[in-house]
Predict the structure.
Amino acid sequence: MTLPIRAPSAILDVAGEDDVVIRVRRHGNTRGPRLILSHGNGFAIDGYVAFWDRFLDDFEVVAFDARNHGWNALTHPPRHDYAHMARDLDRVREAAEAEFGRKPTAGLFHSMSAQAAMIATLELGWRFDALVLFDPPNNPAEGHPARPAMVRYLNRLVTWAAGRRERFADPGELAAEYASARAGRDWAAGSHLVMAEAVLRPTQESGWRLRCPPALESSMYAQGIMLDLRPQASAFPGPVKLIAGDPERERPDATALSNQALGREGGYDYLAMPGTGHLLQLEKPAACAEAVREFLARVGFR
């Protein structure tokens, strides 16, 4: 079963500080408060539709892919880094407000984009009325007990991404790879194929190719090892929710353990989503959406 992705009501091309263009899509209830969403490294936000489709009746959903991912053209590998992605994110928020009007706006970001949102807030200022950060793969400082597992995890991803298969006969082949991998075995029904369709583009000759080249995906994991990003919740002037994988499940992901420590030590409003790993929005989209709704209602976002 392939999950349907409703056609956007508007498409907006947002210029980065260089000549990169980020293609933004507007979905949902245009009279509702605004949610801005993006994704993790090597993925695309359309692949998370089982999660964000649950907001469309009540919220305006503004979805975008990071540079060199998803709907965006491939460009400027030297600028494929957290600094540019953080500023891209801020420009998307500004452009949505300028084009669609000012209204209460919350950011819902997973993994790489959650880190970009944290950097944007710390360096550029508080731009949202609320933030929800899904399992950011922040690496603890030297000497922290959670650091060795995170370093091993990120190094494995550096190697895996650099050597991953780039071409496929059709999206079904990549969907089968997702489904057979430990990280993908618990995704919601239909999500494997819809994610594969979101991260592949047809080639001129034959077959399909990853939209984000493996070398660029690998580079982001490598950057994550050196990224000094472990802020206290008090560094954010507004409400922030940290929703992470389950540190108590059998063989927990390193990110779940890292975020458990961040939640406790950083004073965050923290939730471990039971039974999930790093890709929790793909594994338990309904529960993740409900956690977002509960948080937004509690902080008076409307």
Remarks:
- Residues 82-100 form the longest helix (19 residues).
- The chain has ten helices and eleven strands.
- The longest strand covers residues 21-28.
